[in-house]
Each structure stands twice: as structure tokens, then as C-alpha cells.
Specification:
The complex is a heterodimer of chains A (181) and B (289).
Chain A: H1 3-10, H2 14-36, H3 39-56, H4 66-83, H5 102-120, H6 123-134, H7 139-146, H8 150-180
Helix pairs in contact in A: 1-2, 2-3, 2-4, 2-6, 3-4, 4-7, 5-8, 6-8, 7-8
Chain B: H1 4-15, H2 24-33, H3 64-70, E1 95-96, E2 104-105, E3 108-112, E4 119-124, E5 128-134, E6 137-141, E7 152-156, E8 160-161, H4 180-188, E9 193-195, E10 199-203, E11 206-215, E12 227-231, E13 236-239, E14 244-252, E15 255-263, H5 269-280, E16 283-285
Parallel strand pairs in B: 1-3
Antiparallel strand pairs in B: 2-5, 3-4, 4-16, 5-6, 6-7, 7-15, 8-12, 9-11, 10-11, 11-14, 12-13, 14-15
The chains are: A mainly alpha (181), B alpha+beta (289).
Amino acid sequence: MDEELVKRAQQGDEVAFASLAVAIGDRLHSVSMGILRDVDLAEDATQQALLAIWRDLPQLRDPGRFQAWAYRLLVRACYAEARKERRWSPKLRILERDAVAAEELETILQRDQLERGFRRLSVEHRAVIVLHHYLDLTLREVADTLAIPIGTVRSRLFYAMRGLRAALDATAGPIKREMHR
Amino acid sequence: MTSDRETTRVVREWVGEFETQLPDRVLDAVLDQLPITPQRRRWWPAFAFAGPLVPVGVAAAAILVAAVLGLNLLGRVDVGGPDPSDPSATPDVRAGLLFWSGRDLPAGEYVVDEPFPLRLRFTVPDGWHAFGVVDGLAAICSNACELPDRVGLGFWVVSNVYADACDPAGEVEPPIAAGVEDLVAALTSLPRHEATTPRSVTIGGQPATYLELTAAAELGDCALPGFRAWTTGADVRDSPPGERNRLWVLEIDGVRLMVDLAIPATARDEEVAELVAVLESLRFEPAGD
């Protein structure tokens, strides 16, 4: 990230901030989509996060930490959106079994089960999954980004992965039986 | 049963599909809001001239005496209030503090009023700098109001405090309630600060609750210039490591006011004494007079 842009934006330069927003916008939105699994909620969260980044940018002491700091504000915005009363709309695909090969069917069912399992996780657990497995942050970096102890990150990751594994196992049985029939 | 390795592989492959583009309409909406979204300033940055001249008199009588007296007032917590028998208690006022925003203050008596929700009057010796006046904060300080070494006197209308002193988004949720006791209770629980036991005092002739907060000595991994403590909704307060804050919380005309005497570890006794003397001169006046 261009630290000069960050410094200019800290001084209130809207053009510099627009460049920053373009540079990180897709990545931020991918993370919020990953955590919230809902288009409307994710758009709201990304928008709120970008405005919070603008508003609080003068507070950032080290421009070199801009990206990690931005992710922290984004995750907070995702938490806030997740707490809203709106129902999360399910986005499950309808399977046309005749039109897909068995191997593809297994993949699709697996994805659907993962989606179901992921939605059953708390937003805090999802955030750890997304930061670690999507952004490839180390556990230490996840802890720093979320401002939580690394032990908490390990614990959340363990329980989140256990939940997803259970979802995958729920898929495995029926599919295998179906395929061997 | 799926193995851990297989679960990780499948999950990583799946989250790789999260990649998506930020819709232009979202980005446009953000950029459209920038001009009406003020950035939160550090406490207290140099502040640009922000308002009209509000001359209400000529230079005040010398107030050096008040500053010298202040040396004897370092530990006082009951401060301020008018003395009707003293004719010098109502000297001419130099100007509204708003006019001096971001500038060094000539010695004199100053008024704080709009956009601040209360009308305050106090006397300032030479050598101080005006942060200025905004709707939830009016302040004077040393060292051009730059952190971390400024000594400052701030009048705050606090809307909330922080549950996480290192997170700009870490305000208490739901926000604290509106009473004096609510703010005092929240202050005594601030993370990374130590608080004294609150007690009843007077300031400017008004009953108030007094306490002191001392920020932790090390900033550690905080990415902020100080420990985030409270906010007016627009301005935020960061306490540099080791800073001591003497706080008076009171309610006047339905406004919950907090007076903050901020004393960094590098403060000189003379500076603190001068600000205590400023507090000794403090008067609350009906708004609109």
C-alpha cells in the first residue's frame, strides 16, 4: 500500500483517499462477502468500513499498518451488520441432478453443505476463517487484526473448522451412497 | 470421516471463491459522503481559524496574579466561581475563544459560547494556545496543542467512552446513558487507565463529581497516538502513556459537561498551576447573554 497516499488521506485529501478506496475496495468487499454471505449486508458493511477508515484515518499512527487496520475496521463493520435484525437470505442453488456429472454433483453438494455449515458459525468464527484461509494471514496477524489474544484465534479456528468438517461429513455419507447405488 | 487436512483443503478452495468486486455504486456512495464526513482529529491538533471575530471588549486587566496564585492551587479540586464583592471579577473580555482557534492567546478573559452548548467565561495568562471551540469541545493548551506533551484544559460534552482503548471503532455499545453518574461510572472502568474514587466537589460554583484517571505507562501494541478514552461524536480523546487527567463532571442547563485538566508526564508544575488558576476564574453563564 502506498504510504504516501495514506499520509495524504490522513491530511484530509479526498483524492488520495479515493485512490486508496479503489485499491483496497475489492479486497475489503470480498472479505465482507465472505464473512456475511449476503450481498446487501456485505455492501453496507464495506461502505460503513470505508467511511470509518476515512473518518478515523488521522488516528492511525503508523501508515505502514494501514491495511491491517482497515481490515480491523471492516470486521467491526461486519459484526455490526450481522447484529442487525435482518434475516440472512439463503442463497442455495437448486441442483439439477440430471444435468451434472456425479463428480460435479459431489462438489456442488459439498459447497452447499459448507455454505450451510459456515452460516451456522458465529460471525466471530467466520471472521477468523476468512482472515486466515482467504487472506492468508498468520494466526498472529489475525490476532493483531482482530485485537484478540492468539489463543482466542486458535480456539475460534478450531471450533469453526470442526463445524465445517461436520458439515462436510454430513455431505459425504448420502453422496457416496447415492454414487454407489 | 473427512480428515483435518482434507477439510482444510476443501475450505481453502471454497473461500477462494469469495473473490468479488466492490460495486461502483458502493464506492460512489462512499466518495459522495466524504465532504460531509469530518475526519476525527487527534486530541488536540493545531486547529485552523474556524469562525468569526466576536469582540466583546478590550484587553483584560493583567492576570498574572491569578497565575501566581495558581502555584498554590495545584491540588485543589473545589475550584472557580464568582466573587460578587470583587470588582475585578468582571473584567472586560478580550474576545470569544472561537476567534483565537489555532492561535496563541494574549492574556485576557475569554468567553466560550456557540457552537459550544454552554457559555463559559475564564481568564487565561500569557503563553497558552487555543485549540478552539467546536460543538462538543473547547480547549486551551500548551505546545500548540500537539500530543504528547501538551498540557491542556478541555471542556467536553462526552457522548460515549471506549471499551477498547486501542481500537478507533471500539466504543461502548450501547452508548453510555446521559447522566453524570453514567459517565463517571464509565470513566472509572476505562481500559488502560487507573481511576481514583469519585467524590463530590464544586467547580465554578456548581456541584460536580471529581476523579482522576492515569493512563498506562506504555503504549505497547496500540496503533493510536494514545489510549482512546472518550468521544464527543466528532472529536476523540487519546491519553498519551502516563498522562494524568483531573476530571470534573457536572450537569448545567441539561448539558453534561466534563472539565479535563490533562497533565502529561512531562508537565511542569508552573503550567499546571496556571491552568488551575484558569479554573479558579471559571464561571458558567446563561447561554445567549
